[in-house]
């Protein structure tokens, strides 16, 4: 049995991201695998790194008192799925804050003795899927911006912390001009990606 952690980051339950989160959760819940769903807005998650957390960043024991539940869920996850809107070609503040507070020393990685290359701790994670919506067309994200969110998540975060995890990103572009046919096609793409992790 695999353990799935789904993290959703949109303030509106009836949003496109809310719809996609429900789609993902229903598919996993119908399988024999374990699902934990964190709706960051619904939980009232505080994205601000606390002074105590920052002060303990380079100590032998990081202060996880405020994020112990999230820390344990991340460490136990075989598959991490992030569902969020891309705003200004970046992560929503609440998701960026969740990463700041949870992908920390002792949970996601350890500092090397010489503070060189990070030592990964999420070695049980086999897959990470990022599902995002964008108002912009594909060519701006890919050809002008060079997919900044994909590079940050896949290369700067998942790569060093979960080196065995296969990272993939599903992006729904021009979502403000979305028609039913395009939504249906994207839903199929999401279901296929999730199905691969269920087997």
From TrEMBL:
Keyword Oxidoreductase (UniProt): yes
UniProt domain Flavodoxin-like fold: residue ranges: 2-135
Pfam families in the record: Flavodoxin_2
UniProt key word Oxidoreductase: yes
SUPFAM superfamilies documented for this protein: Flavoproteins
Sorted UniProt keywords: Oxidoreductase
GO cellular component terms attached to this protein's record: cytosol
InterPro entries associated with the record: Flavodoxin_fold, Flavoprotein-like_sf, NAD(P)H_dehydrogenase_qn
Coiled-coil stretches noted in the UniProt entry, renumbered to this chain: none
GO molecular function annotations of the record: NAD(P)H dehydrogenase (quinone) activity
Family in the record: Belongs to the NAD(P)H dehydrogenase (quinone) family.
Protein name, as recorded: NAD(P)H dehydrogenase
Annotated source species: Phyllobacterium myrsinacearum
